[in-house]
Amino acid sequence: MNHTADSLAETLSAHAGRPVLLTVTRNLRSWVSVRRARGEIHARLHEALLAAPRPVLTALAGFVAKGGRTHAGVVRDYLRQAVADHPPRLPRLTPAGRHHHLGALLAEVMHHFPGHAAPAITWGQRRRPGRSRVRLGSYNPRQRLIRLHPLLDHPDVPPFMLRYVIHHEMAHHLLEHDRPRSEPMHGPRFAAVEAACPDLPAARRWQRDHLSAHLQRLRRAHA
């Protein structure tokens, strides 16, 4: 039987012997976090635990009440499988742009990641460019999806620049799912993966010499 957030909080409170204030999330970086203060327990749990079987809930109750590696291991193993069995729906993918096809570019980049499955990839939605800082690419770990900013879908943007952005997001794809919370997002392991990109030197030169002017031209064109 699936729990609601309220019923699970009641179950955990009864086991812990004190109130458990429960927040249900979809956070893949921190599936379970517990903070004890002033006679209460504040717990943040991934939503997949609402459907957990009794042995997992017993381990969860033990972890919330007292902690412990054994309890944590049971909960972690269940969550990993539950999330893998129920991947989120992907949005409509549009890897084929007006000037660049991201699917073909991703295939080139994947030669540098042998043995790893490729994520999904798409262009972001086309919007009127604003004056704020442009994020060239992003990675969604829940969807395992790379997005590139559509301002890069332009004949003036060389393919090596796009390959570099994809490689950068592939580093997130490779490391995000096992990165300890204490490790910086762009820490030494990330830097090592990014440094292996053969397009890195040329891409950084292009960013330095041309990116700002490219974005300004596009903003003026849409003014």
Describe the structure in your own words.
With 223 residues, the protein is an alpha/beta fold. It has two domains: 5-85; 102-221, Metalloproteases ("zincins"), catalytic domain (Zincin-like, 2-Layer Sandwich). The chain is built from seven helices and six strands, in the order αβββαααβββααα. The strands form two sheets. Strands 1-3-2 form a three-stranded mixed beta sheet. The chain has a three-stranded mixed beta sheet with strand order 4-6-5, with helices on one face. Helix 2 (54-66) crosses helix 3 (69-85) and helix 5 packs across helix 7 (200-221). The chain starts with a helix and ends with a helix. The mean pLDDT is 87.
Q: What summary fits the major beta sheet?
A: 3 strands, mixed
The CATH architecture assignment of the largest domain turns out to be: 2-Layer Sandwich
List the domain count as a whole number: 2
CATH class of the largest domain: Alpha Beta
Unreliable sequence segments: none
The percent of residues in helical segments reads 40-55%
CATH superfamily grouping of the largest domain? Metalloproteases ("zincins"), catalytic domain
Order of strands, main sheet, comes to: 1-3-2
CATH names the topology of the largest domain as Zincin-like
Please tell me the overall pLDDT.
Answer: 87
User: How far apart are the first and last residues' alpha carbons, in Å?
Assistant: 56 Å
Number of helices: 7
Structural class: alpha/beta
Question: What share of the residues does DSSP label as strand, in percent?
Answer: 5-15%
Supply Rg: 22 Å
